[in-house]
Amino acid sequence: MRLSISVPAVMATSLRFGRIVRATGCVSFLRSASVRNHGSVGPAVQRESTSSSSQSEINREIKSFAELQNERQEQAERSVLLTCPQKVSEKSLLKYLSKYGDINNYFFYESFDVCAVVEFSQKNSIAMLQDGTVMPAGKHESCIPFKSRVFTLKINNPDDQANTRQSLPCLKQSAISINELVERISAETTLDEQICTLTKTYELTEENVRLRFLVCSLLQDIAIQYFPNCSVKPFGSSVNGFGKLGCDLDMFLDLDGIKEQNSNKTSEPFSVEYHLKRVPSERAATQNVLTLIGECLDRFVPGCVGVQKILNARCPLVRFSHQPSGFQCDLTANNRIAMKSTEMLYLYGSIDVRVRALVFTVRTWARAHGITSSIPGAWITNFSLTMMVIFFLQKRRHAIIPTLDQLKALADAKDKHIIDGNDCTFVRDINKISVSENTETLGQLLQEFFEFYGNFAFQKMSINIRKGKEQTKPEVSPLHIQNPFEQTLNVSKNVNQTQLERFVSLAREGAWILQQEGMTKASVLGYRPWGLAALLLPSTSDTGNKAKKRRRREGASERIKSLLESLKNSKSDGKNDATSESSGGKRPSLRTK
Ligand code: GTP
Ligand code: MG
């Protein structure tokens, strides 16, 4: 048997260190969170020394987005997915598979079935495995002979293996519920620790990221049959560092490899072009390509269910569920700007460890209160929320992260990138970005975030991360967040006044809750839930029936009751024009800065 299980990528990649970065608060939590995440998508952070209790130096190595993508894609191309029997001997399973070649890494998880992801050291192991794989015998149904890298493992002689069969050690691929999270973070002793625990609990695991890249690679196997130089890449929260376990898988079918071959060799007497079908626009071409892939998924590919072709959207897509992985997938094509904004968010998340932690916290808080939703509508999206956190961090007295224009000024010729006439240039080498002098803790930042947006002049001003300054709104949408690359667009155009008001009202309430005594540190009196846990509880603004029923069932603690009472009685400070009429005087007054 040749079985060589490598050092996990997480550890291997954290052995090389880069520049020194300042961080504050629960550094050890951030460190372990970030190291774990590095195997997946985020920056690696290694603590070096602690110069004071409030400020520590950490040494960090960060891979560029492109490096990480290439590494992961290559890893996925050497991997297979197997559905396994409920009980099987792990040892004999690995022994059997290793006859096709060395195994670098493997893990088990449970989705619809118990599944295994197996990464071979060499790509040719997969061809050998495929050669030795048989078609299933269908007695009553006919099968479509579609061969892929998804296999079903059958036990040939169940009696022989009866003694050694066991439940496989499955790793969870979903996030714990908000109630479990509240319980977990209530046991922490500081608000900073709560925030770090939330981040560690919800961030994508190494295995989950591997699975995401593998699903993209499986789709690429299909698309490549028609478009030989294409690739399928993940984008959005699967790879920008802000993904929560269970988030959707956004994929981008990149056909540019095909266009790249269009170089004219003018020194030759002739040149030969492919004879191609012409369609009226690039959009029509994208729609045709997605129609074809959508049909393939629907008709031939096992485990791809609920395929919807949403071709008239601003960005046409194919949406489906991938049962073996459990992912809800969105496949787009010709969506290079979204890929670039993913890279930008990855960079921002890598600059300072507080960025990811704050984004995770704000996203979780927003989801807990129904500010965001998985259903499309007039809600604020996670993408818009992330932009709001970035803007807020740019606006600190000592900015924690640079503006997009500053990142552009640091770019060199290699970073230059124009997409459809939009300048998407920014520096990609993180070592060129100076470390912020800001030493605020995560707890302080969370409180300030709520105060900042509780008072923001949404009615008149637009959020602009390119300039790092609010600017006069160019249009009447309730919430205006300038698209960083297509600057005439508003990424939050979908948000209506009611949803914006809910956000502002809840932000004010959040600021007020954190100002209360005992809300940033666990009290010896043992008030629970406190701090972040209290922020995640249903609020006065959660007026939906579900929240009402839940409150009735649970019964509020005395502290929460009095807190709600205070909220009702306190008066709005009226700073925010956009919300002053509709909040019915329920908002708490804010500490003046
Ligand atoms: P979750 O899926 O909610 O975890 O976050 P996400 O960041 O993946 O958001 P989503 O799936 O909605 O979108 C995927 C990516 O598309 C985002 O990360 C952005 O890069 C991009 N995107 C989403 N919405 C917009 C938008 O309104 N404007 C622009 N320019 N890009 C967007
Ligand atoms: Mg997404």
Automatic annotation (TrEMBL):
Residues 191-349 form the Poly(A) RNA polymerase mitochondrial-like central palm domain. GO terms for biological process: RNA 3'-end processing. The keyword Mitochondrion does not apply. Its cofactor is Mg(2+); Mn(2+). Residues 64-133 form the RL domain. InterPro entries: MTPAP-like_central, NT_sf, PAP_assoc, RL. GO terms for molecular function: metal ion binding; poly(A) RNA polymerase activity. Gene3D superfamilies: 1.10.1410.10, Beta Polymerase, domain 2. Transmembrane segments: none annotated. Residues 441-487 form the PAP-associated domain. GO terms for cellular component: mitochondrion. Residues 541-593 are annotated as: Disordered. Signal peptide: none annotated. Keywords: Magnesium, Metal-binding, Transferase. The keyword Chloroplast does not apply. Residues 554-578 have a biased composition (Basic and acidic residues). SUPFAM superfamilies: Nucleotidyltransferase, PAP/OAS1 substrate-binding domain. This is Mitochondrial poly(A) polymerase. The gene is MTPAP.
